[in-house]
From TrEMBL:
CDD domains: HisRS-like_core, HisRS_anticodon. The lineage of its organism: Bacteria, Bacillati, Bacillota, Clostridia, Eubacteriales. GO terms for biological process: histidyl-tRNA aminoacylation. L-histidine binds at residues 81-83, 112, 126, 130, 257, 261-262. This is Histidine--tRNA ligase. Coiled coil: none annotated. It is found in: Cytoplasm. Its main location: cytoplasm. GO terms for molecular function: ATP binding; catalytic activity, acting on a protein; histidine-tRNA ligase activity; transferase activity.
Length: 424
């Protein structure tokens, strides 16, 4: 039987890859404009990094990690997310000793053992940013504005930005107590996961997708009810900065990122109609994570964006996009000598940067012209033995259906001129 790719993975073929390249290009451009620099960390890390950095009570660490022993008996995990690695790299490379804040971004594959479905894969890709070393609300506003700006450049529609504050170690204990009191009478009816969250991390129960849990948590006390003065002030300032940057957002008091080191700001971007999975971006402040992986106390904030879901949303907003990367000119050469000459011409054009092609199969004129149509070439240049003998070449404009005969020696200059005039 033919070998198939692992469940939950994808082959990105020509035609689709161009959409990825375009998205990556736009990401790199916006990051440059906002002053974020790229970081590339290993695809695999010591398992302990994620156990400590993502947290034992999360779905990721509990059930979604690709973990294995390498030949040296070390426990290794394919990275399920990027933040823990960035924080590790920040500490390991002593970036905290340099100028602050450190503004980083990454793009790359992540791995989670999940049930594959629309918008949910086992190998998927994230674009994420992390800002380390500042705890001012303006940083929170900057990263959310970057997301908003990117989405409007991509032409996405039907977006909702949800923001919340989950408090800090000084105000969360009061909320935890109130929430436990509220949930206690119906504790037994919670799903199994939430029963185990009840003692350790009841905040995450607000985030559970189980319908019964959602029903039970209706009207539960939210972190916004118990914010301390500092957190309340931070949240207020964030909102006025977002308004100043004309970001349209909603306060969603049920939005949580439930780890101990998550503080203050949490946010998520949802998009309608891309199927069951509507979250395209999630982020928040994590003052405490750097310390968790062995560094000095350092505030941090970031987000991660699911690139497959962003592309799905983009397709929905704009319809199918034609892939690029096609030849501008196809040289149709007939006969051995013309092929040799044609190959030399095409090589020169390519060397100077024009996407040009030549038939590699020795096909007939008709078949070659058909191929030129298929790749949507702008021009076909026809060179047979007879033309070669006369020192001419036929240049056919495939869009207009017109053709001219040119002296062979002028050909490259004419083609270049047209290529430039076409805005290349
Ligand atoms: P979800 O609720 O969809 O499981 P999550 O809370 O696990 O999301 P994060 O860990 O915050 O997601 O990751 C950030 C983004 O990465 C998500 O908003 C989503 O767009 C994307 N993402 C997460 N898991 C997957 C996956 N298995 N396949 C594709 N995209 C994913
Ligand atoms: Mg998930």
């Amino acid at each position: 039987m033919a070998i198939q790719r692992p469940k939950g993975t994808q082959d990105l073929l020509p035609g689709v890859v161009e959409q990825w390249q375009d998205l990556e290009e736009q990401i790199r451009k916006i990051c440059k404009e906002y002053g974020y620099q790229e970081i590339r960390t290993p695809i695999f890390e010591a398992t302990e990094l994620f156990q400590r950095g993502v947290g034992e009570t999360t779905d990721i660490v509990n059930k979604e990690m690709y973990t294995f022993l390498d030949k040296g008996e070390r426990s290794i995990t394919l990275r399920p997310e990027g933040t823990a690695s960035v924080c590790r790299a920040y500490v390991e490379n002593k970036l905290h000793g340099g100028p602050q804040p450190v503004k980083l971004y990454y793009i790359g594959p992540m791995f989670r053992y999940e049930r594959p479905q629309s918008g949910r894969f086992r190998q998927f890709h994230q674009f994420g940013v992390e800002v380390l070393g500042v705890d001012k609300p303006m940083v929170d506003a900057e990263v959310i504005t970057l997301v908003w700006d990117l989405y409007s450049r991509l032409g996405l529609k039907g977006l909702e930005v949800h923001v919340n504050s989950v408090g800090c170690p000084s105000c969360r204990p009061e909320h935890k107590k109130k929430l436990q009191e509220f949930l206690a009478p119906r504790q037994e009816q919670l799903c199994k996961d939430c029963q185990s969250r009840f003692e350790k991390n009841p905040l995450r129960i607000l985030d559970c997708k189980n319908p019964t849990c959602q029903e039970i948590t209706q009207g539960a006390p939210t972190t916004l009810d118990t914010l301390c003065e500092e957190c309340a002030e931070h949240f207020k300032e964030l909102q006025s900065l977002l308004s100043a940057a004309e970001v349209v957002y909603k306060v969603n008091p049920r939005l949580v990122r439930g780890l101990d080191y998550y503080r203050k700001t949490a946010f998520e971007v949802l998009v309608e109609d891309i199927g069951a999975q509507s979250a395209i971006c999630g982020g928040g402040r994590y003052d405490g994570l750097v310390q968790e992986v062995g560094g000095p106390p350092t505030p941090g904030i970031g987000f991660a964006m699911g690139m497959e879901r962003v592309l799905a949303a983009r397709k929905l907003a704009q319809g199918e996009q034609e892939g690029e990367g096609k030849d501008y000119l196809l040289l149709v050469a007939l006969g051995d000598q013309a092929q040799r000459e044609g190959f030399a011409i095409v090589s020169r054009l390519r060397k100077q940067g024009m996407p040009a092609g030549i038939d590699l199969l020795g096909r007939s004129l008709k078949a070659q012209l058909k191929a030129a149509d298929r790749v949507q070439a702008h021009y076909a240049a026809i060179l047979g033995e007879e033309e070669l003998h006369k020192g001419i070449i036929i240049l056919r404009d495939l869009r207009l259906g017109e053709q001219v005969e040119l002296p062979l020696q002028d050909f490259e200059e004419v083609v270049w001129k047209r290529y430039k005039e076409d805005g290349n």
